[in-house]
Each structure stands twice: as C-alpha cells, then as structure tokens.
Design goal:
475 residues, 9-stranded mixed sheet, Arc Repressor Mutant, subunit A, alpha+beta, elongated, 3-stranded antiparallel sheet, 16 strands, binds magnesium ion, binds zinc ion, binds adenosine-5'-diphosphate
Length: 475
C-alpha cells in the first residue's frame, strides 16, 4: 500500500518589538540572565499587563501579508499549566478570538505553485528558559524571554511532503523578514516550528492520527524530522500497530524523534478569557493604514522580476527570497540593463562568496554598480568571461573596481588575431601526434588544443577567436 503524509506546521515567530508584549522590559537577546525582568513579566501579584500596540500592529501586518481576515474583535485568554519557566502559572495567549484567520501563502515545489492555508495567527507571550548546564545539581531559570511577544502562525494540514514543509517555512520566513516584524533567526529561536505529522493510505480522505514534533531549529532538521516521523509511522501501521496522538521531541544528535508526552487537549489547559486585559477592537481605518504601508512582498516582486526582466520563475524566486538581495540585484540591473547576466553573477559567484563567509549581502564588499561595470568590460571584449571570474574574486577581496584590477594585473583579453595565430601555430607545431589523430577523426581532441593554447596565453586569449582559428588551421 502507498502512504501519503499530511503535515501542518505551527510556527512561532518572535516579533521585533523593542519592548515585551505586556510590559516595558527590553527584548534583546543574550544578556545576563534575569536582567530584563519586572514585576509584570515575572507575574507578581497585583500587577496588570498592558498590550504593546506595536505587537498588535505587527500581527496585523503579517495577517494582511498572508491574506488573512483581520478580526474586528479579538481577545486574550489564559492557558493554564505549570512549568518552572512560567512563573504566573499561565501563559497569556489567544484562543477563541485570534487576531487573524483564514489566510494562505503560495509555495513553489518542483516548479509548481501550491497554495497553503493559514488557519490562524495569534499573539502570545513567550515563556522563560530553563538552563540545565553548569556546575552542581542545579537547574536555573532565566526569565529574560518571559513576556517576549510571539506570533503563532498555524497552517492548515495542506502540506504533503517534508520538502513542501521546508518551502512553506522558508516562504513564511521571507515574508516576515520583508515585513520587518521578525528577524527569522532560527538558531536564536526567534523563528521556530512544531511539525504535526500523520499518514494515510493514498486516496483516503480522512486524516490519520497526528504526532506533534517539537524542538526543530533548522530547515534541514524540519526536513529530517518529518522524514523520520513519516517512516516511523508507516512502520508502526504496517507492523499492525496504531499511531498514537502524542508530542515527540526531535533529537538532532541521533536523528530520531522520541515520545515526550501524550498529547494534551485544549480542555486540559482550562482556557478562559484573560480578565486583566480588555478585548481588542481593531478599527478598519487603522487596518487600511497598515495595508497601505506594506512593502512589495516576495511573490509580487517575483512576478515583476519575471515580467519585467524575463527571468525564469526559479531564478526570480531565488533572487526575491531576501529583500536585500532583490534590492542589490535591481540596482545592478539599473546600472547596466542586463538582468540575465546580473542574475547569473548574483546567484552564482556572489552568493557562493557570501555563503562561504556567512556574510549577508548588506555588507557585500562589491557594490552593484561595480558588477555592472565589470559586465561592460566583458561586453566590450576587454576581458573574457573566464577572466572575469578571477577579476570578480579580486573585487570581492579588495572592494576595488574591475578596470583597475584588469589594468594592474594585465588581464586584458588578447583579441589581436595575429597574436592568437602565433600561439595556435606554436601549439600545432609542438603536437604532431595529436594533429594526426585529430585529422583521423578524433574530434574530441579540439579540447586539448584549446586548453594548451589557453594555457600558453595565460587564459587571456579571446575564446571565440581562438576556437575559430584552431578549427581553420586543423581542418
Ligand atoms: P494544538 O495546539 O493542539 O497543536 P493547533 O490548532 O495549534 O493545535 O495546531 C494543529 C496543527 O496540526 C495545525 O497546523 C494543523 O494543520 C495540524 N493538523 C491537524 N490535524 C492534522 C493531521 N491529522 N495530520 C497532520 N497535521 C494535522
Ligand atoms: Mg500544537
Ligand atoms: Zn517586564
């Protein structure tokens, strides 16, 4: 029997507000434990929370960008449970009336567009962090993160493969980064996901029982954890067993998921409306204002890159996944009007160099205008495409202009036919055996001659002229 996976993701995105969601404490990451707390976020008796308006605005921005309906009326609820990192004994979240509902985003998988539903986006406060490292038989609690604003973005169970789940998460990350509402940092936990996974026989409409996998903190692990979980469930069912509804933990070291606890149900949390916060009434005029302030989003930009610049869907998708990359690309295109050439250099050599150093394009040593100028040198025939790679590397290392590097290193392409002819004659004279074999029909040997001649010219011979001359002389 063939099995099909059904996957839904719950993404927690930390909102990029300066202050926490219900108090004025800062949200900065990595400071001295418990240095960013106050009576409100550690839950002292008698204190009252007040909603951070910026957090509400960011949630609305995200809802609008994902085609959600923005609720005119929404409110907070208490989710009650005990854990040492939750001093109040409850988390302020949203339950019955989330701020955003019924949205969707589009992802590209294997060159096909697929729409993934977003069930809801709600606001909530983060909990603190238990720390089990260090000397002695103690665990520690750091409450700096307590009360940091989160959005929980819940997808419909529309995803069908680990790859789709990764694409969905990447697209969501791209959107929140475009919006400036979340930094999307998976390592620091400001963009994290729980994956709900079930399987069913292909063709069956009804969903199977899901397991929820937590603790996944990279795109690679999203894929690996879901892959593992699908295989595990198939094995259970094919072995005559039943998948049980439970929460599982991804163990990255061992590459497996492990049962953590049986799945809690909503009623276990005794949700009830938060009595310390007033309900939120959102005015249409404010929503309209926020909508008008949205930037051009990745999908719209992608469409424009395809129609205005003639790029393929795939290239446009890659170039628009980061707003800063798209902006860099556009500046270079503006300076020289060759979108395809610019796209190839950005997606190839530039991305490779930046990735090697884990550097973002914002502090790229090459300016877009400098790439444009280098492409002009290729067009004019001053340098070959091959030499350009050397020049580009040097530009990246030093930040200098292409023409300066070309002059200084003597990299100007040889396009003087008599000079190339000399080189070609020399190689032919030195290689009588190869000439014989070539003439006898071993045409692959043209590569040998081109290689030798290129080497002799230190890579500077105009490749087209070289090829033509060689073919003529060997004919
Ligand atoms: P809970 O808090 O119980 O995890 P949520 O409503 O927050 O519930 O999230 C449920 C998630 O599980 C959603 O992303 C939804 O798409 C997904 N889901 C629901 N049923 C299934 C299923 N049978 N298989 C896989 N995913 C599912
Ligand atoms: Mg859940
Ligand atoms: Zn505080």
């Amino acid at each position: 029997m063939k099995w099909e996976a059904v996957i839904g993701l719950e993404v927690h995105a930390q909102m990029l507000t300066a202050a926490k969601i219900f108090c004025g404490c800062p949200t900065t990451f990595g400071n001295e434990p418990n240095s960013q707390t106050c009576q409100i976020c550690i839950g002292m008796p008698g204190v009252l929370p007040v909603l951070n308006r910026k957090a509400l605005e960011f949630a609305v921005r995200t809802g609008l960008a994902t085609d959600c309906t923005i609720s005119k009326y929404s409110r907070f609820a208490r989710k009650n449970y005990f854990y040492p990192d939750l001093p109040k004994g409850y988390q302020i979240s949203q339950f019955e009336n989330p701020i955003c509902e019924h949205g969707h985003i589009e992802i590209m998988v294997d060159n096909e567009l697929k729409r993934i539903g977003i069930t809801r986006i709600h606001m909530e406060e983060d909990a603190g962090k238990n720390i089990h490292e260090g000397a002695g038989p103690y665990s520690f609690v750091d409450l700096n993160r307590t009360g940091v604003p989160l959005m929980e973005i819940v997808s419909e169970p529309d995803l069908r493969s680990p790859k789709e789940a990764v694409e969905y998460m990447k697209k969501l990350r791209s959107i929140v980064r475009y919006l400036g509402v979340c930094d999307g940092n998976l390592e620091q936990g400001s963009f994290r996901c729980d994956a709900n996974v079930s399987i069913r026989p292909v063709g069956q409409e009804e969903f199977g029982t899901r397991a929820e996998v937590k603790n996944i903190n990279s795109f690679r692990y999203v894929e690996k954890a879901i892959e593992y979980e699908i295989k595990r469930q198939i094995k259970v069912v094919e072995g005559g067993g039943k998948v049980i509804q439970e929460t599982r933990l991804w163990d990255a070291g061992r590459g497996i998921t492990e049962s953590m606890r049986s799945k809690e149900e909503a009623h276990d949390y005794r949700y009830f409306p938060e009595p310390d916060l007033v309900p939120i009434m959102v005015e249409q005029s404010w929503v309209d204002e926020i909508r008008a302030s949205l930037p051009e989003l990745p999908d719209a930009k992608k469409q424009r890159f395809v129609s205005d610049f003639g790029l393929t869907d795939c290239d446009a998708e890659l170039l628009t996944s980061e707003r800063t990359t798209a902006a860099w690309f556009e500046r270079a295109v503006k300076a020289n009007g060759q979108p395809k050439a610019v796209a190839n250099w950005v997606m190839g050599d530039l991305m490779k160099l930046l990735n090697e150093e884990n550097r973002s394009i914002e502090d790229c040593p090459i300016r877009p205008q400098q790439l444009a100028a280098m492409l002009q040198l290729i067009d004019k025939g001053t340098i070959s495409g091959k030499i350009a790679k050397t020049v580009f590397d040097e530009m990246y290392k030093t930040g200098r202009d292409a023409d300066e590097i070309v002059k200084e290193k003597g990299l100007v392409q040889i396009s003087d036919s008599s000079e190339i002819e000399k080189i070609v004659d020399d190689i032919i004279a030195k290689s009588p055996k190869e000439v014989e074999r070539f003439k006898a029909g071993d045409e692959k040997l043209i590569g040998f001659f081109v290689g030798q001649a290129m080497k002799a010219s230190k890579g500077k011979a105009n490749p087209q002229m070289l090829n033509e001359l060689l073919k003529k002389k060997l004919a």
